[in-house]
TrEMBL record:
Listed Pfam families: Acyl-CoA_dh_1 (PF00441), Acyl-CoA_dh_M (PF02770), Acyl-CoA_dh_N (PF02771)
Residues of the Acyl-CoA dehydrogenase/oxidase C-terminal domain: 233-366
Entry protein name: Cyclohex-1-ene-1-carbonyl-CoA dehydrogenase
Keyword Flavoprotein part of the UniProt annotation: yes
Family assignment from sequence similarity: Belongs to the acyl-CoA dehydrogenase family.
Claim: Flavoprotein is one of the keywords in the record: yes
SUPFAM superfamilies registered for this protein in UniProt: Acyl-CoA dehydrogenase C-terminal domain-like, Acyl-CoA dehydrogenase NM domain-like
InterPro entries cross-referenced by the UniProt entry: Acyl-CoA_dehydrogenase, Acyl-CoA_DH_CS, Acyl-CoA_Oxase/DH_mid-dom, Acyl-CoA_Oxase/DH_mid-dom_sf, AcylCo_DH-like_C, AcylCo_DH/oxidase_C, AcylCoA_DH/ox_N, AcylCoA_DH/ox_N_sf
Residues in Acyl-CoA oxidase/dehydrogenase middle domain copies: 122-220
Keyword vocabulary terms for this entry: FAD, Flavoprotein, Oxidoreductase
Needed co-factor(s): FAD
Segments forming domain Acyl-CoA dehydrogenase/oxidase N-terminal: 11-116
Amino acid sequence: MTQDSQHETYPEIREAVQKLCARFPGEYWRALDREMAYPTAFVDALTEAGYLSVLIPEEYGGSGLPLSAAAAVLEEVQRAGCNGGACHAQMYTMGTVLRHGSEAQKRRYLPGIAEGSLRLQAFGVTEPTSGTDTAALKTTARRDGEHYVVNGQKIWTSRAEHSDLMLLLARTTPPREGAKRTEGLSVLLVDMREALGRGLTIRPIRTMMNHATTEVFFDDLRVPAENLIGEEGKGFRYILSGMNAERLLIAAECVGDAKWFIAKAGAYARERRVFGRPIGQNQGIQFPIAKAYANMRAAELMVREGLRLYESGANPGPEANMAKMLAADASFEAANACIQTHGGFGFAEEYDVERKFRETRLYQVAPISTNLILSYLAEHVLGLPRSY
Ligand SMILES: Cc1cc2nc3c(=O)[nH]c(=O)nc-3n(C[C@H](O)[C@H](O)[C@H](O)COP(=O)(O)OP(=O)(O)OC[C@H]3O[C@@H](n4cnc5c(N)ncnc54)[C@H](O)[C@@H]3O)c2cc1C
């Protein structure tokens, strides 16, 4: 047992995920990356093994495990060089249905999601004009008899082409003077199988990494009113309530990425000989890797603290945000050290370093950018005036 593995939670899950991931080596991801293709076989394997439904309660067909089990799964996926970005959203978007959906909705959707016959991978919040300012979103859902009629546009709706359902945040009541801007937003569960071609259009966006992200257009799309989650007008609160879980899971992924980069850099530094000795003998090579390791461990502690508080029933906004920021920084620092250690080979596709480097860079921006985390801490933890 290594120093690292002694403190890790859920060793059996981790070992089983590592075995599964070994079936999807670098060649698999490289081929997909070239074509910008979705890792269907990998996502199917994770689904069949039950890993994407660890958070769904047993009564709805999942394994009913705590958030730290989901974090262990995603961390191992990244640590193995795979990419959980293809499917991680299912773990946290499902939570909105679980916490705020009616019993009928839970019975209708959760068992299918748990067994893999229904995919809830798409999360439509961000819009091109509103960006981080979610309350300024412009997509509307107007009640018309037994339906909502949806008009507007979302951007960066990842995995929309590989999902059956989308959790959509839209404005059901225009902003009222004097009321909070976050009021009047509602969450709808859109069945994209019925909606495509009937008011829903999806357009892929090519990005610097293979992420299956899209923009989505709504043109008089009719969504049954029974697909409203919770109460009309309270959607912002529902989305917000899932964000700490989302941040902690993304942070766990970043810790996994950092571990992959550190292991990869260490292995290369031991093996590559220049000037008649391993490059890892030079402190100029050792120190950046050692520093990245220390920062990864510190971030990992914050992730664990966030998970501990979350599982004790608290709503750990500061810890979830700090964990996400520190882990994203640690993964990118490790990525940078890894590429530098590899010299020119860091840029060659066959080493997978440049691919992982591109993939982990995302987490400085999404699902929440570093600046917004710092603003949150400044305002809500340190009591400084709101800056925006
Ligand atoms: C690959 C990818 C996948 C994504 N997947 C999804 C998804 O599935 N669903 C979804 O809803 N969204 C998704 N997103 C959107 C993502 O959450 C946003 O990109 C992110 O929240 C930032 O919003 P924005 O891009 O509109 O940036 P903007 O809000 O335009 O911000 C641009 C820059 O300005 C900074 N900034 C803005 N306001 C302030 C301020 N007040 N103080 C200091 N700095 C500020 C930001 O930090 C950022 O660096 C995804 C994005 C990407 C790139």
